[in-house]
Design goal:
alpha+beta, binds zinc ion, seven-stranded antiparallel β-sheet, 870 residues
Length: 870
């Protein structure tokens, strides 16, 4: 049941005049992933399996974007000519510029990447500095910096020195940035500060360095010029600004020059921590003081770098424990392109330098290899020279998927759009395909390159054609895999039929309905189709429902007035009456075995749980009493703190978790094999229950806080992981305000207003009730869609698997049910959503009831062990 009894009471009066905000709500909820900035990796030559430097980079920029790839030839210029920088500065032109690969994001000033014919690679990562008085000359330099390095440098060290000279001459226009400047022998991190200051550090040959939107170069010995290069006054300038005290030791570049907010931002430090921990194979100490570089636990291949760039904490197992609170996804929803540069110098550059391009997000895309010898990129890798409008972009990305080899960027972006709507099983299959195709590509890469090298001396064009065919082959395999991934979804029409069949063939259990509360207001014959309400026998059979827990709801007010136990007993009497009154329709069940026994005999098993431990009246003996009466779970509290623990809805903490009685209660429920229900409890209470309980724990009707940030009635990812790690599960609440952020906000705003009004006007008694009745009567909320409930289930399945999630509708307890989940006849609609996302029948069986029965059986076994003292 939701928040407050008065809300539930008003559900009938409000049902008449609701405004449908469903469309708006769905639009707003549509996968909004925050932009996280870029991520870069440099692998030293002795830390890579091939003995060459590798550079990996995710370029994250909010859509709409396009990405073009070009191969520029060498160019010669007459002596004494000049070139004009984007910001107006004038620079002497060189006689010849090198040939280079250029990854271009039109309209963006700091998003391009380059690899030139010497293997000099340049890309960057935004790293804000603290400089607020930058010195610029002739408009400064920005966009041109990396391009000039690609055009003019033959080694990474050259590139660093050139970039340094340019920065000292013109001044850097943006707040700060780390440029990765690498070649086949060594990688450098070139940190530039707004104005004329910079410092670069070489990555040790046997180590791996990463950057996640804040400077990573720490204390350096400026005299060690083999490994550190910098503008001359880098220390003196910091001293003059009061940022650095030389008597405190060596210059700690990041500590001195970084913008403190960027340096301490958990998303930056968290991603860096995730990435570094991934390659060390064991978690480092989290926080802002992470090392500049680390020794990997094994030498990294190109495929390993791809897996790091693809790392998404919700979709992947990694060497970093998934339940660590510091884990961050390295691959954000805003990744527009990604690459791995494989810089080998033991072959001619046209063969030895391979640039693996991933368009759109590595999460859903494939890396396609291009050797430096290509004349140009295929047509689909080069689009218009303008950034698209949001409308044009959406039209392309949201259109029906076609694997068009002429439109690589749009094909991959469109595919990401389609995969984002799919479930964990579909993602799992895609990941397997990505690894298979990329692994195959890596396996045949060497033999093909060796053949190309043999041909190259006498017939370079045939050699290059061989390499071109190789990349074409990988590209075609990727297109094929994408089509197959989407084709697996059967036609919409028979999804409904399949879902309906499945709902009736399998055991379907719902762990929370507030039907008794509805019937106490007005008793009706629920063996027939009734008007209103969410439950009756006829609709339940239509929906395939086999067993349900009816909530014996006890209002929080009983804590003060007394009489909770008697009230609960009366409700139990009423529920028992259903079995007697309608013996052909309902049967009271008390165990997993009884549910299985009754399954298929056309009767619906009714089980009971007490919603709100206030019913115990603070007496431990009452646990046995209610257990004897058939109660199988107790929701520890409801919308207010009680004698057991704090509520997620109360204004302030009374116990800061569990009360001493609450702690004894957990032990007693464990002993009796009863289910401890953590829906409605405060976070502190939840964590204390998890610590104390000797059996798995269940949330019988909650959803994911991930989608309703700050709303404590739903569970955070961390809580869900812990719940699952201890063998328990979360049964997803269907209520619109539980699953949809907009409805949730509408609801909490009214709730806040009511609270404030009552407090400010000191309303009591009749006046208070009247006001509450009126205010909620005026309120209207949007409705979620059935697909959003599936999104919550999918989120949990991605986090912890289908063994730890199920249905806990809260029917008759929530006022606003989603469109498509109007009552107990609608479970097949939800099942169809799961089928659409690629869930297999065995997954759905678990979600629909088997997972709950498994957990409940474990709880009962734990009770038996405790009672027998084993
Ligand atoms: Zn509830």
């Amino acid at each position: 049941m939701i928040v407050n009894t008065f809300v539930a009471r008003l559900c009938l009066t409000r049902r008449g005049h609701r405004v449908l905000l469903a469309v708006l709500a769905t639009l707003l909820l549509a996968w909004s992933v925050p932009s996280q900035g870029c991520f870069s990796i440099v692998v030293g030559k002795n830390a890579s399996s091939e003995g060459c430097v590798l550079v990996g980079h995710n370029e994250d920029d909010g859509a709409p974007q396009i990405v073009n790839h070009h191969k520029a030839p060498r160019q010669t210029y007459p002596a004494d000519t000049t070139t004009t920088l984007r910001d107006g500065g004038v620079l002497e032109q060189v006689q010849e510029t090198w040939s280079y690969i250029w990854s271009e994001m039109p309209g963006m000033l700091f998003s391009d990447s380059y690899v030139n014919e010497w293997g000099v690679t340049v890309c960057s990562d935004n790293c804000p500095s603290r400089e607020n008085r930058p010195e610029l000359t002739a408009g400064g330099i920005g966009w041109d910096l990396r391009r000039l390095v690609a055009q003019r440098a033959t080694t990474a060290r050259d590139g660093v020195l050139l970039a340094g000279r340019l920065v000292e001459r013109f001044g850097y226009v943006d707040s700060g940035r780390t440029y990765i400047i690498a070649d086949p022998q060594e990688g450098w991190l070139f940190c530039v500060v707004n104005g004329k200051h910079w410092l670069a550090r070489r990555v040790p040959d046997d180590e791996v360095a990463m950057v996640a939107n804040t400077y990573t170069v720490r204390a350096v010995a400026l005299e060690d010029t083999d490994n550190v290069l910098a503008s001359k006054d880098i220390a003196e300038y910091a001293r003059s600004r009061g940022w650095y005290d030389p008597s405190a030791g060596a210059l700690d570049f990041a500590a001195v020059y970084a913008n403190p907010q960027a340096a301490g931002h958990p998303n930056n430090t968290g991603r860096l921590w995730s990435g570094l921990s991934y390659v060390t194979g064991q978690p480092l100490t989290p926080g802002p003081d992470l090392p500049f570089s680390v020794v990997p636990r094994y030498r990294l291949s190109v495929a390993d770098v791809m897996q790091i760039l693809r790392h998404d904490k919700e979709n992947e197992s990694s060497p970093v424990p998934a339940d660590s609170p510091f884990v961050c996804s390295l691959c954000s929803g805003a990744t527009q392109t990604s690459f791995v540069a494989q810089l080998r110098s033991d072959m001619p550059a046209e063969v030895g330098i391979a640039y693996w391009v991933c368009l759109a997000s590595p999460r859903t895309s494939f890396y396609i290899p291009f050797h430096f010898g290509i004349a140009d990129f295929p047509i689909g890798y080069r689009l218009e020279s303008q950034r698209p409008t949001a409308r044009a972009y959406d039209r392309k990305v949201q259109a029906e998927f076609t694997a068009d080899p002429q439109e690589a960027f749009w094909t991959f972006s469109n595919f990401r759009d389609k995969m984002d709507g799919k479930g964990a099983p579909a993602m799992e299959r895609l990941r397997a395909e990505q690894q298979r195709i990329e692994r195959d590509a890596a396996t045949i890469q060497r033999p093909i390159e060796e053949a190309a090298c043999r041909l190259y001396e006498n017939d370079s064009s045939t050699a290059l054609r061989l390499l071109e065919n190789y990349s074409k082959g990988v590209y075609m395999s990727a297109l094929e895999a994408m089509s197959a991934a989407l084709d697996e979804t059967p036609a919409q029409t028979d999804l409904g039929q399949r879902a309906d069949d499945l709902a009736h063939r399998m055991l379907l259990i719902d762990t929370h309905l507030d039907t008794p509360f509805e019937l106490q207001k007005r008793m009706q014959d629920i063996s027939r189709r009734i008007e209103g309400g969410h439950f009756d026998y006829v609709r339940a059979r239509q929906g395939g429902l086999d067993a349900l827990f009816m909530a014996v709801y006890v209002a929080p007010e009983y804590e003060e007035t007394g009489g909770a136990k008697a009230y609960a007993d009366q409700t139990i009497d009423m529920i028992e009456g259903f079995g007697r009154k309608w013996p052909d329709h309902f049967v009271l069940a008390r165990s997993p075995d009884e549910i299985r026994t009754h399954f298929g005999d056309n009767r619906i098993s009714i089980l009971m749980g007490i919603e709100n431990g206030s019913a115990l009246e603070g007496d431990l003996a009452n646990v046995q009493h209610f257990c004897d009466r058939g109660i199988r779970y107790i929701t520890l509290t409801h919308s207010k703190n009680n004698r057991i623990c704090d509520s997620s809805f109360d204004d302030e903490a009374q116990w800061h978790g569990l009360s001493p009685f609450g702690k004894e209660l957990i032990a007693e429920m464990n002993r009796l094999g009863m289910i401890v229900d953590v829906s409605h409890v405060s976070d502190d209470a939840f964590y204390q229950v998890m610590e104390l309980s000797k059996a798995p724990v269940v949330a019988t009707h909650s959803a994911c806080r991930h989608f309703t940030p700050g709303w404590h009635r739903n569970m955070s990812d961390d809580m869900i992981r812990l719940l699952a790690a201890k063998g328990g599960l979360i049964q997803v609440n269907f209520g619109s305000m539980f699953v949809n952020a907009t409805v949730n906000r509408e609801f909490t705003e009214v709730q806040e207003e009511v609270r404030r009004h009552i407090r400010d006007n000191r309303l009591q008694g009749e006046a208070r009730s009247r006001y509450i009745h009126e205010r909620w009567g005026q309120a209207s909320f949007g409705k979620a869609q059935v697909s959003e409930v599936a999104t919550h289930i999918d989120h949990i399945a991605r986090l912890v698997g289908v063994d730890h999630v199920g249905f806990g509708s809260d029917f008759d307890g929530v006022t606003e049910v989603p469109v498509g989940l109007e009552d107990v006849s609608c479970y097949p609609n939800l099942i169809a959503e799961l089928l659409r996302r690629g869930y297999r029948e065995q997954d759905i069986r678990k979600i629909a009831g088997e997972s709950f029965l498994r957990v409940w059986a474990e709880i009962r076994q734990a009770g038996e062990r405790l009672r027998s003292g084993k």
